[in-house]
Design a protein that fits this description.
This protein is mainly α. The chain contains three helices and two strands; from the N terminus they run H-E-E-H-H. This is ATPase.
Length: 176
C-alpha cells in the first residue's frame, strides 16, 4: 500500500535527520515532508475507490440474488402448470408448488442474509484497517510534526534572543 510506504519514508527522514546537541530536536527538510504529505493525499482516493467498489459489488450481488429468486419463482410456476394436467396431479402439484415457493423464498432470504453478512464483514474489515491506519500513523505523525515545529520555533526564538543580548552587550561595550 503506497500510503504506508510514504509514512515509512517520513519516519525514516525523522530517524535519520540531523539533531541539535543537548536539545533532542531535529532538523528536517520541510519541502521534502510536505511533498510526501501531498503524495499521501493523492494516494488516499485509491482507498476511497476501493470502498466504492465494495458498495457497487454489494449492489451487484443483491441484483443477482433478486434475479435468481425470480428465476426460481418462474421455474416453480412453470413446473406447477405442467403438473396441472389431471385432478390428482393438480392437488399434488399445488402442494409441490407451494413447497417450492416456500423453499425458494427461504433460499432467497438466506442468500440475501448471507450477502449482507459478507458485505458487512468486508466493510467492517476495511473500516478496521482505516482506523488502524489512522491510529497508527496519522495521529502520531501529525503530533510529532507539530511538536517538532514547535520545538524548532522555540529554539529559533531562543537563538534570536541570545543574538539580541549579544548585540546589546556589544553595543554597550562599544559605547564605554
Amino acid at each position: 500500500m503506497k500510503v504506508l510506504e510514504l509514512l515509512d519514508e517520513i519516519e525514516e527522514i525523522v530517524d535519520t535527520s540531523t539533531s541539535f546537541p543537548l536539545t533532542g530536536k531535529i532538523m528536517v527538510d520541510a519541502e521534502e515532508i510536505l511533498e510526501i504529505v501531498k503524495e499521501i493525499r493523492v494516494e488516499l482516493p485509491d482507498e476511497i475507490q476501493q470502498a466504492q467498489w465494495i458498495k457497487d459489488e454489494r449492489q451487484r450481488i443483491l441484483e443477482e440474488a433478486k434475479k435468481e429468486y425470480e428465476t426460481v419463482i418462474n421455474d416453480a410456476k412453470r413446473q406447477a402448470e405442467v403438473l396441472t394436467e389431471n385432478d390428482d396431479i393438480v392437488v399434488k402439484s399445488k402442494m409441490r408448488a407451494d413447497e417450492i415457493m416456500r423453499i425458494a423464498e427461504e433460499n432467497c432470504k438466506q442468500l440475501k442474509l448471507n450477502t449482507f453478512d459478507y458485505i458487512d464483514s468486508i466493510l467492517f474489515n476495511f473500516q478496521d484497517k482505516m482506523e488502524q491506519l489512522n491510529a497508527t500513523h496519522f495521529a502520531d505523525m501529525f503530533n510529532q510534526m507539530e511538536t517538532t515545529f514547535q520545538n524548532v520555533n522555540a529554539t529559533l526564538a531562543s537563538n534570536r534572543n541570545e543574538i539580541k543580548d549579544l548585540a546589546y552587550k556589544t553595543q554597550l561595550d562599544k559605547e564605554e
